[in-house]
Amino acid sequence: MQTYTIESLDQEGRGIARRDGKTIFIEGALTGEVVTASVYRKKPSYEQANVQRILRESSQRVTPQCVNFGHCGGCSLQHLDARAQVAAKQRVLEDNLWHIGKVRADQMLSPIYGPSWGYRRRARMTARYVFKKGGSLIGFHEKRSSFVADMMSCEVLPPHISRLLPVLRELVNQLSIRERLPQIEVACGDAVDVLVLRVLEPPSAADEAHLKAFSEAHDVHLYLQPKGPETAHPFWPEAPADLYYTLPEFGVKMPFFPTEFTQVNHEVNRVLVHRALMLLAPQSGERIADMFCGIGNFSLPIARGGAYVTGVEGSASLVKRAAENAEYNGLTQNVQYRAMNLFEIDADVFAALGRFDRMLIDPPRDGAAELVKSLVSAPPRRIVYVSCNPATLARDASMLVHEQGYVLSAAGVVNMFPHTAHVESIAVFDRA
Question: How confident is the model at residue 1 (pLDDT cuts 50, 70, 90)?
Fold first, then answer.
């Protein structure tokens, strides 16, 4: 068995070693460690391996808190000290900005982070009846597998949701549709918790009785989803759940539907919104664009300060929700929303929106390439870009700096998903 010295971590949290001109990616190894590893995949230019023995241990190695770590594919970095995880993500961000975008930030911002455990207010878990396992399994997929991890708890879910996993398994075992229930989605608000059960056929009368008893015993709202996310509807209690999160600093309350996109980490989201608005620095009376606005997570706090905000989003249902949230918070005079495919926008369409003083961009993983290209017609003087993918941020940063005349004034990481290799970040671009 080969011995390897780990040089660094890659974007998936795997240790990187070199041998005979090849890069070796070793799961479970940390920077500075000397390990033995077994290779499970060989390619001409790289290999993938699992750590077998640690011959020299990193001072940053810690004991994973979750009993499922290493088996469950949900977390990849529990063996690395939480602060060191943030530092590793900062290096990933800087490396992507330079190697992909050929840009460096004038200032690296202090990282945004929050609780390391019990933070995940949203989760989509697979449910599967496995006769050989003695019944239903509910959890995340196993590492590098479509199988469901045999989980009785989860340390990144809120503790009261984690404690439900064993009884959820018992509930599903009792149902006649247990083999037609492939997914359970968790949506936790500030006041109530919702479980959305994906059902491929309607529950029987006996099933309904079991579901109602579970809801009442565990103080959780149950929704049923027969088809796409928009078909989710309250089952028990029959009235819609009062599902919301708050941004107290801005006096904003954000109702949302259980299957609508919201940030999984409410505590970090509050800090992120504060940071984004501090960097954007919108002034009363200015025109601000909030691109990929979702349900209004950034646009409503911006509007609260007196700026006029145009929120643009590709999903008509999210635009409708954002407009309802603006009305709920008494901000309709300062914000308007439009449904528009920002992946197909061009300079003429962007110019028709009018000139903006500042812009916030919060795209999905694919980034905002077409939007960035369209800014040539009327570039705002400052852009704050919130990213969930450092590679597409770097690509878009390259266009903004090298083609659109912006300077990358600042950038930093947001640890939205502790113990995973997922890197969220925020960047500021100013017209040169």
Answer: confident
